[in-house]
Write the structure tokens for this entry.
Amino acid sequence: MEENTIFNYLGLRARLTPQVVDIEDLYLDPENPRLFGEDVEITPGELEGCHWSDPRAQWRLFRALEKSHGVQALIDSLASLGYVPMDKMVVREALPGKFMLIEGNRRTVAMQRLLHDNMRRARKDPEEVLATFRKIEVLVLTSTDADQAKDIFLLQGIRHIAGVRNWGPYQ
């Protein structure tokens, strides 16, 4: 018997396929709702002439998320525990073998920051920790073009409205 979850009710479970991907093949979403309506908003003209996969566009997105969205707490957690894939990131294949993040932009920034800082020797984290996020299992959204925008909207709404909640001091 299939589990009754909101993903089943919305028909999303059948369109989410697990796949292991290299962290280098994950791209930040230039339309990440987290960036809209804030001081770090990326305006369309700012990246004009840049494809979303352009390193300049990705670097601007990286810095915007890192600067204003609590990435340091994720970096600290990842550095001590490694990547624990309890709540898998959701992506869509944007180019062959290249995946645009739908959910998981902040986690990806934190993992990429740790890998970069270790590569340039600004940090020295254990290899066992770093290995947990060089290749990670994600859920690939396989919606048709007609359903993709709706499914992305639903996924982001579900994850941010009914997402993980902090435990209180007693718990």
Notes: The mean pLDDT is 78. Helices lie at 6-9, 55-68, 71-81, 105-119, 127-130, 145-161. The chain has one domain: 6-161. DSSP finds six helices and five strands in the chain.
